[in-house]
Design a protein that fits this description.
single chain; globular
Length: 125
């Protein structure tokens, strides 16, 4: 028995990189257009990342502070993807759907707490 192969697979080299960049841009655009939380976090990142570059005294401090902020965007994108996939499957109220969405929300909350902890530790050092 052979492994099932996606009809979307098979591109290699530069074409694969270009396709991936297009898919990534489409995902960022969709998140910005459809997800209020993502838009808010992008605006927060536009404020905090330059501030991190200014306030950080070393490259490591700057990287930690900016990286924590970018981590929130990453987790929010994954949370939004889970929510979209779950909503595609069913819009009914179901314990497993609620659990999946709540766990995604918890991941975003932990990422936000991580920003506060990293920034606090760096700035109070």
């Amino acid at each position: 028995m052979s492994d099932p192969v996606s009809p979307f697979k098979g591109k290699t080299g530069l074409q694969r990189v270009l396709n991936a960049a297009g898919y990534s841009w489409a995902g960022l655009s969709a998140a910005f257009k459809h997800e209020d939380a993502f838009r808010q976090e992008v605006f927060l990142a536009l404020l905090l990342i330059p501030l991190a570059l200014y306030l950080g005294e070393t490259g490591i401090e700057r990287a930690l502070m900016a990286g924590a902020v970018l981590g929130v965007l990453i987790v929010e994108l994954l949370n939004s993807a889970v929510e979209a996939a779950v909503d595609r499957i069913s819009l009914e109220h179901h314990l497993l759907i609620k659990r999946a969405k709540d766990m995604g929300s918890a991941a975003v909350m932990i990422a936000l707490v991580n920003v506060a902890v990293v920034w606090g530790l760096v700035l109070l050092d």
